[in-house]
């Protein structure tokens, strides 16, 4: 089960009320920083953008591939451990805007995690140390350490008990 906080809204759908939940200038700043980072080929600079301007916790030697899209509204809720790889065009979300509510959740990605290209990581999930997430996976629940996960909906097809 994903760990999210739920906030009810009255009136129009919650996305229509976006700027009542997050300041406009925060969204604009985040948009500019994320777009610069998405196209930056220099990994230490990309991580510096994420840490300095977005408040993300990013471990040493972690690699965000080209075109990774981190959450625009609440990127400070993202933590990535050391020596992990986030694959090309992956999206990491910490929010969900629904009709009658919006939800916020932290995303925690452990050390030495490999996330393939074109994945979507939903709010409120934890991906354990050493896990491998296949390309195209929608991560809608926690992935244990040293597990192999794939598909939509995500399925854990293998675990490595000893972590090797």
UniProtKB/TrEMBL annotation:
Taxonomy, superkingdom: Bacteria
Pfam families attached to this UniProt entry: Hexapep_2 (PF14602)
Keywords: Transferase
CDD domains xrefs: LbH_MAT_like
Annotated InterPro entries: Hexapep (IPR001451), Trans_hexapeptide_repeat (IPR050179), Trimer_LpxA-like_sf (IPR011004)
A GO molecular function held by the record: transferase activity
Name this polypeptide is given: Acetyltransferase
Organism of provenance: Halolactibacillus miurensis
